[in-house]
Every structure is written in C-alpha cells, then in structure tokens.
Specification:
The complex is a heterodimer of chains A (485) and B (531). Chain A is an alpha+beta fold. Helices cover 15% and strands 39% of the residues of chain A. Chain A is built from eleven helices and 31 strands. In chain A, helix 1 packs parallel to helix 2. Chain A is globular, with a radius of gyration of 30 Å. Chain B has three domains: 118 residues, no CATH class; 145 residues, Periplasmic binding protein-like II (D-Maltodextrin-Binding Protein, domain 2); 194 residues, Periplasmic binding protein-like II (D-Maltodextrin-Binding Protein, domain 2, 3-Layer(aba) Sandwich). The chains are: A alpha+beta (485), B alpha+beta (531).
Chain lengths: 485, 531
C-alpha cells in the first residue's frame, strides 16, 4: 500500500477541523471518567514545539503540531483533563486518543473518519513508539476508548506529545512519534527467493540466479491432487539432486526437507531425489515459460522427464521457501490404522497431515519435571482413516461428506495405540473427539524425535481440558486400532 | 598462550582437558563457608518495609540460599543483589538502608533510572551472621557506599503492574539458561514462559507477518539484526545502562548507531586438536610464542606423513575466510557500506593460501557436521570450530585441546566473535518488565553462573575475573576476544557471506582462477548492495 501523503501544513488542519465539526459523522467513544473534562480555554502563551506523529493502520497518515494547533482553536474535543501521578493531580490539555485511531482504523481516506468503536472493543494491538525508539504495545480490549489522551500541554506548559489518562504507567509514553494499529491489511510484495540451509549455513538464491545455473532444465511433468485433478505442464526449474550435490555430499540416506512459506514441510531422502528411473525431481519455478505465481508456485517440487511422470499431489510441495539439509539420516516409517477401514500411512502422508493440521502442545514430563514442546497432528483427525468403511481423508472427491465420523466417536469405541514393542493403551473415542490437546507428535522442541520416541509419540497438553482416561505417552507408535466392541 | 594442566609448569603439553580440580576446590570452599555460616548463631532477619507497610522479614538463611558469587569492588564475594528481594518496580522514590548508621539512596528523577540503585547494590552475608550493604559507585560524585550490620530496608515506589513475560532462546545451553530465567521468575513472582525456538529470526518475522503475538524478549545473534530491524521487529535498547559491557559486544549488536540487544555471552572461533594424535609445538601457542601458519603447516605435514588427516574445516564458508583475510593483511573488515571487500590483495592471498593447503592434502574441505564427526572419530587431527563445540566434545569424552588461531603473515588470524544478546520485541506489551528482566540478566553473577557451565565467556568484563579462575578455556577465549572481530551486524556482511558461499567452492576446487573468481564475487556483491 502506498503511503498517502497529506500536506500537514495546509490540508490536514482543515481536515481535522472538518472532522471535528462533522460530529454527526463520527462515532463517539464512551465519555471518559476523567475528573475534569471542560471545553478548552485559549492556548497558554508560548509556542508549541514542532512535532509529528506518524499514524499507521489500515492506511497511513500523520498529525503535526501545526494541525493540532488549528484543531484546538476550532474544535470542541480538545480538553483540559487531570490525572493523578505520584500522589499529585496534574492538569493536561489533550485530544482523545481515539481521534488519532479513527484516522487510520478504516480505509476511509478523508473526513469524516469514523471511529470503529466495535473493533476497539473487540480488541486490536496498538504500538506506541517514543522518539528514542522505546515502544510499548497494548490491546485496545484492555483500555476503554475514552481513557487515553494525547496531550501537548502539561500544567500550563507546552510539551512534546505524550500519552496520558487513567491508564497503566507503562503506556504513558512521552515524546510520542508513532502510533501503529495492528489492523493493517498491508501485504508486502515478497521477493521470491529460495533459501538453502546446509547444516545451519544459509544462503539465498533468486529465481534469476537459479535459472542461470547449469542445473536448469525444462521438461514435462504432472501431479495429481487428492481431489483427482491432474496438472500437467512443461516445468522449468533446477535439478534438485544435482543442485544439492554442489553443496553437500548427497547420500541415499540424507534427509532433505523442503519448507513452505506457510510452514508446510515435506522430507525426501537423498535416494528418492537421486533416483531418475521414473523422472527427475526438480524445484520448478516456471510453468510453460512463465514464472509460477504464488499458488501453485512460486517454487514447487515436481518430477519431470521424457516419460512425463505423474506424482501424488502431497509429494509435490508448493510455495517452497527453504531447503534444509542436515546430518539427519532419512528413515522411512509408516503408521497402520485399522478399524472399519484399514490404511497404512507412509511418512510423507503423515508429514503432510502434520503440516496441514499442525498442533503444538506443552507436555509435562513427570519423570524429568520438565515441560517439553511437541508438535504433531491431533489424534482425532487420524481416526478418520478407520472410522468408516467408505470415506478416508483426501481420498474422496465429494467434499460434502466428512471423512471423520463424529457421531460414531460420540457413540463410543476403543482406540488402541500400539507401540513397536507391543506396549499399548486404550482410549475412549468420546474423550478424543475434537480434542486438539491430544496429539500424535513427530517433533520435539522443534527437532526430530529422539531415537527412543521415534517415529511417533502420543502426548497431551499440560493444560488440556479433557485428559483421556488411561492415556500415557506411548513412544514408537506403529499402529492405531479402532475397536468397535 | 596455551598452558598445561593445573599444577604443572614450564613449556609442556598444552592440552587443556578439563579435570575439574579448580571447580572442585571452589565448590568445597563455598560449602565450608555456608556450613560455617549456618553453625554461627544469626543475629536477626532482615526487616523489609514497602510503601510504609511491613513485609515478611527475610531470614539470613534465605539470603544464603539465593546468594551467589559475583565480582564486587575487585573481589569475588557471595552476595545477593538487592533487586532479588523484591518484585520489579516501575519507579523508585525512596530507598533507606538502616544498619550501623542509616543510608538513604537518592533515586534519579527519571523513572527509568530511579530503579538502577536496586541493581547496583547488594548484600553480603558475613561470617558473623550479619549483612553488609554495598552500593556500587558510578563516578567520583557518586562513590561506592558500604554499610555494615544491616537491619532493615525501607523502600517506596511503584510496582510494575505486568506479571508475565515470554522469552525465546536458541543455541547451546538452553536448559541451563531456562533454569536461570525460571529462577528469576520465581524470585520476582513473575510468570515467565521460556521457549526454545531455533532460527528465531525467521520465526519472529513469520509471526509478525501473520499478525501473531511475538515474544517479549528474544536471544539473537548479530547477523539477525539487519532483517529484524528492517521489519520493525525490535526496539533499540534505550533507557538501559550499557557501560559494563565489553566494547566489542556493543559493536556487534549495534546498527546505524543504535544498540539492538543487551549483550549476554559470546563464542569465539578456536582451533581444536586431538591430544591423542598430536601435540602442539613446544613454544606453546598465542601471539608471542611463534605459533604461526608455518608452525601449523609443519605440524600438518608431520601428521600427513604419519597417515593422519591433518586438518579439516568448512572453508567454503566466509565465516572461516574472514580470519585469513585479516591475517593476510586486511586492515579493516567492513567497508563504508557495511560489506567486505574481496577483490583486494589480502583476500586473494588468503584464498590462494587455503587452496594451496587443500591441494597439498593438508586441509580437507568439509561442511560442519561431517568435519565434526571425523574429529570425534579420530579421523582428523585438527579442526577449526568455536567454543560452542566444547560442551558436546566433553560430553562425548573426546580427548581434545584448544589453541588460539595461529599468526598470519601480517598479523593474527583474527577469530570471529559471535555475540549473543537479548533483544526486546517492538510489539511487546511489557517493555518495562522486559528491561527489568534484562537488568537482572546483565548481573555479572548471573552471566558467570550460565557461561561457566557451557564454557562461553560473559560480556561483562567484571565477570571475566571469575571466568579466569574457573573456566579452563579462559586464556584462549580471552586471547580470541583481544585479537578477534565481532560478527558484523550489517546487511552488507550477509551479502558478502551469501555471495562467497556460492563462489568459494569454485575457487577452492580449482574450477575458476582465484583472481577472476574474486572479481566476479565483488561484482555480485556490488550489484546486490546497489539494490
């Protein structure tokens, strides 16, 4: 969004005047509880220092000392207020803060700016910044709209603008230079780049740089989505394995992880990427001669080649922003879910599920006395792979039919979570139903699970509303059985 | 200068395998001191009054419980910082200490500075069961003050209303640092959430872009600063005393004349060697000892003759090129525009030298994990790494020693100093509480408590006296600080690093002549800087 520029010396004072005079067009905030709220007298003698406050929200604007002066003369909202500070009543002359908020809390670009009182009460963040850079943020839901003022006079003397009011002391910023509302809908135009992270060493490539490498090719390839749609194009991109070999000793068991802009991630083994028997994996950023847009690009992993390969949609990650190569050895695993339908989910399917339905919990480990952070997918979502004989997630074209059968879960069935060593627990589907606090985790503290918990572990949030009876942190999960007794 | 194990003398094996004898002696002394104190009848508990109202007295045992060693007026003493006894204040109006005499501290009129006396004064538990108050002076007009036999403290001020903070951490020693931070939370009755967040710069930017709530405080490194400040993610560390920090730490965490994080610790690049495969030259190491590149090459050649891979590091990364550029004569690392020039004589000679080492089989070019695993398994005798590797090597019981970087032809190979500091989010709802937290983290006693456990150096120079006694790697780390350069916080450094990451592999593997490659690299750097 381009910054709108207003001539503060000419237009702004008139606008503020009109805004203040056009009271019918302004939603007024609830009257403040300040002890003394009287119409302003004429300004005291002496001149106001020169200052400017930048306003940022749904639009951008500024308020200057000069504009403030004009508003004080003509408006009725510039007030004398008094607040207690360190046991003493101090008088200020001030404008209600919400007037400034009104200038940028909506997309209206000229007077009368409507103050969005509803948004204020629902709550958004406001960041106040002082001239030295000190900043504080508060939620409008915590402060009545009429409680805050922007003052330019204290005890009869001009000051640089400051926040005053019946508000916590840490919000009473002096020498205010910026007010920023979190209502901004601004989307910065992103520069498309690919980051390569090799054991923590990061480097970044633009599309132009990638296209200039000897690894760039253009060939035909396809991917088929879970809904059954096949996308076939002549993709242009870099040969994935060859590109990585320039930076790392790529082995069949090397783990290569792609991370998307929205946090989605997918891992490949070096062996997968090097296997060209059914096509070549590329990081594609062009389709039929044009750069890929954000969706289905900007950068997408896809297989191409003379045989026109077609891969499963969930293996083809889009919006890739980073490729990570670590010392971690790639290990395949799967999870068998049995019940009214049996499904064996491979690592990539599970990873895809975790990416789409990420849930992170704080699990209290009683043995160590430590709180640990686990990331995974809520268990109840996986029950959809076995709770009825016909419908499984991402395997049906009719999206109107939910694959998860809630009514069956509420009727009750046993959910047996089984580890590789045979240990198992039994849980009640009623207590798991839509319970996001119980997850099947793939990561711990941001890293791959340690060996003793790998590949999957069941954990729950320490503040979970419902902790299913019989639950234990089963490690090394290989199977989930839905038992309809 | 490398030295032998404690208790030995002369020019001997410079291996510094930690035996813990110094730590054991200090721990025994501390235990004896506490036992003695517990046996001596205590005088009375410390009376506390806040805003005119009496609060529960603080027993002497409580003072002993939270006391820790810290440097005070040139000595190391068990002490409690006054602020550890109270919840955080927004501002202080009056502080009166009563003991063998009364002492009134006059807080500054500025709200932010009024609370500083709480962080600059401490209580020492004495052997006779009494307490001594000490206020550190700031200048000749505010000298230090001592008051014995303290009986009571009267304090008036305004408490901070906010009672929670979220802190993000990363890198080594997270569990030790979490422990330290949670201790602070317990002492001050503040709910503090501490999360380990790897790659916190990109995570923070994602949270801000998504309109989420960032943490209040985040531990960062200097090269995070350009992107985070450009995104408006941080607020500068104004209204915060920074005089106690090592000058290079403030340089590292500054950009455009502002300091963006409060320094906390640093790691330094060092040379690691297998003590079971080699010894360093008899003259020892260090700037005055003759430990230079010629000695390094001679050592490497001897290893090669014995069939041992001499040395390995990730020379493809500019992180390891910088020391050689400086050792080969680069006078100033950063240009005016914040980037590093690569088409100069020093860079040409540095890259050529590294290529020669590789061509002769003295340097095996490997990225970090591969290099490290070969060192652990004893396949390579020397690596370049940094002090953050020490805890892991110790945990794995690898027989290793450390040494400073050798001298280059035109000066020391200046190791990079990787400073970490705590930054305050611009969108924090608790900026005052965040600053109170950071004032506590800046205490030399806290810095020493953490860094001593993970073999890093604190950034408060007063804490170095303690490190010298208790950190077996202090000498090498201290030499690294004296000769080293901080990892720059400029955008230009990142551009240089990213460009060289792509170019160095062509130059060191002979795919492109060095001079031509460096000219191309300079051209790429200039183009990116011009955008």
């Amino acid at each position: 969004m381009k910054r709108s520029k207003i001539w503060t010396g000419m237009v702004l004072p008139a606008v503020i005047i009109a805004m203040l005079m056009g009271c019918a067009g302004v939603q007024t905030a609830p009257p403040p509880d300040a002890e003394a709220v009287v119409p302003a007298d004429s300004p005291e003698t002496g001149s106001s220092p020169d200052w400017t406050i930048e306003l940022k929200g749904m639009r951008e604007d500024t308020v200057s000392a000069e504009g403030f002066e004009e508003a004080k003369v003509h408006g009725s909202h510039y007030q004398k207020v008094a607040f207690e500070r360190k046991g003493e009543m101090i008088e200020y002359r001030a404008m209600p803060f919400w007037y400034m908020a009104a200038m940028v809390d909506g997309k209206d670009t000229e007077h009368p700016w409507l103050f969005d009182a509803e948004a204020w009460e629902e709550g958004y963040d406001v960041t106040l910044t002082a001239a030295d850079g000190y900043a504080v943020t508060f939620s409008t839901a915590d402060i009545p709209a009429g409680a805050m003022y922007v003052a330019d006079e204290k005890s009869g003397e001009f000051t640089l603008p400051r926040i005053v009011g019946d508000i916590p002391g840490n919000l009473q910023i002096k020498d205010l230079v910026s007010i920023e509302l979190s209502l901004s809908a601004e989307d910065a135009e992103e520069e498309v780049s690919l980051e390569l992270d090799v054991n923590g060493e990061m480097t970044s490539f633009s599309r132009e740089e990638l296209e200039a490498t000897p690894y760039y090719i253009e060939e035909i390839g396809s991917y088929t989505t879970s809904a059954g749609t096949t996308h076939t194009h002549r993709y242009g991109g870099i040969r994935f394995a060859d590109f990585l070999r320039g930076y790392v000793d790529l082995q069949p068991d090397t783990t290569v992880k792609v991370v998307a802009m929205d946090g989605y991630s997918m891992s490949y083994s070096g062996g997968d990427l090097m296997d060209e028997s059914k096509g070549t994996w590329i990081l594609a950023f062009k389709s039929d001669g044009e750069y890929l847009p954000l969706d289905p690009g900007y950068i997408r992993s896809v297989k191409v080649g003379p045989s026109k390969p077609n891969i499963d949609g969930h293996s083809s990650a889009r919006m890739i922003s980073r490729v990570e190569v670590s010392g971690e050895v790639y290990r395949e695993y799967d999870l068998l879910i049995t019940g009214r339908m049996d499904n064996r989910l491979d690592r990539q399917t599970i990873q895809s599920g975790v990416s789409c339905h990420t849930r992170t919990v704080e699990y209290f480990n009683r043995k160590s006395g430590e709180t640990e952070t686990y990331t995974g997918i809520p268990l109840w979502l996986l029950l959809a792979y076995g709770d009825d004989p016909q419908h499984a997630p991402h395997r049906q074209t009719d999206k109107s039919i939910l694959s998860y059968k809630e009514e069956t879960a509420l009727q009750g069935y046993r959910v047996e979570v089984v580890a590789s060593d045979g240990f198992s627990i039994n849980l009640d589907s009623k207590q798991l139903n839509r319970n996001d606090d119980v997850i099947i985790a793939t990561r711990k503290n941001g890293e791959t699970l340690p060996d003793r918990e790998w590949p999957l572990v069941i954990v729950w949030d320490q503040n979970a509303e419902v902790v299913p009876e019989g639950i234990k942190a089963v490690r090394g999960i290989t199977e989930i059985r839905l038992l309809f007794d | 200068m490398a030295s032998g194990p404690p208790g030995q003398s002369g020019n001997i094996l410079p291996s510094r395998v930690w035996k813990g004898s110094l730590m054991n002696k200090s721990a025994s002394a501390a235990a004896a001191f506490f036992l003695l104190l517990l046996l001596i009848p205590r005088l009375q508990a410390l009376e506390i009054s806040v805003n005119g109202a009496a609060r529960p007295a603080v027993p002497f045992s409580r003072v002993l419980e939270i006391a820790r060693p810290r440097p005070v007026s040139g000595e190391i003493r068990q002490s409690v910082v006054l602020e550890e006894l109270f919840p955080p204040f927004a501002q202080l109006e009056r502080l009166m200490i009563r003991g063998s005499g009364d002492f009134s501290v006059l807080p500054s009129e500025s709200d932010e500075e009024s609370i500083f006396p709480l962080y600059r004064s401490c209580l020492f538990p004495e052997k006779d069961g009494s307490l001594t108050f000490y206020l550190e002076g700031t200048n000749s007009s505010e000298p230090s003050k001592t008051l014995r036999n303290v009986r009571s403290i009267e304090i008036e001020g305004e408490f901070l209303s906010s009672g929670e903070l979220e802190v993000w951490l990363a890198w080594e020693g997270v569990s030790e640092l979490k422990e330290e931070i949670r201790r602070w939370g317990r002492l001050h009755d503040i709910e503090i959430t501490v999360n380990e967040v790897p790659k916190s710069d990109s995570k923070l930017l994602s949270v801000l872009r998504g309109g989420g709530q960032p943490p209040d405080v985040v531990l960062i490194q200097s090269d995070y600063i350009p992107a985070l400040t450009a995104a408006g993610a941080l607020q500068p560390m104004v209204r915060f005393p920074l005089e106690q920090f090592a000058a290079k730490s403030l340089d590292a965490l500054s950009l455009d004349g502002r300091i963006w994080a409060v320094p906390f610790y640093f790691d330094a690049q060092m040379l690691f060697y297998r003590t079971d495969l080699m010894t360093l030259p008899a003259g020892g190491t260090g700037s005055a000892s003759g430990w230079d590149l010629r000695a390094f090459e001679e050592t490497a050649r001897n290893l090669k003759k014995r069939g041992i891979s001499p040395a390995s590091w990730n020379a493809y990364s500019a992180y390891w090129l910088v020391p050689f550029q400086i050792g080969f004569g680069k006078e100033k690392l950063l240009e005016e525009n914040g980037t590093v020039r690569v088409d100069d004589r020093a860079s040409y000679e540095a890259v050529t030298y590294l290529k020669q080492l590789s061509d002769e089989g003295l340097l095996d070019l490997r990225e970090r994990d591969s290099m490290f695993s070969r060192f652990i398994s004893g396949e390579v005798a020397m690596i370049l790494s940094a002090s953050f590797s020490i805890p892991e090597l110790q945990r794995l019981e690898v027989p290793f020693g450390t040494a400073p970087f050798p001298e280059g032809p035109e000066g020391p190979l200046a190791p990079l100093l990787d400073f970490k500091g705590f930054a305050v989010s611009r969108k924090t709802k608790h900026p005052l509480l965040a600053r109170r937290f950071l004032l506590s983290m800046s205490d030399p006693g806290v810095q020493h408590s953490f860094t001593s456990r993970v073999f890093k150096l604190p950034v408060s120079e007063s804490a170095w006296a303690m490190a010298e006694q208790l950190n077996p790697y202090y000498q090498d780390l201290r030499e690294a600080y004296d000769t080293g350069v901080p990892v720059p916080s400029t955008r230009g450094y990142k551009v240089y690093k990213n460009t060289m990451w792509k170019m160095l592999r062509f130059l060191l593997t002979g795919k492109m002549p060095v001079e031509e490659g460096l000219e191309k690299a300079q051209s790429l750097i200039d183009t990116q800087m011009a955008r």
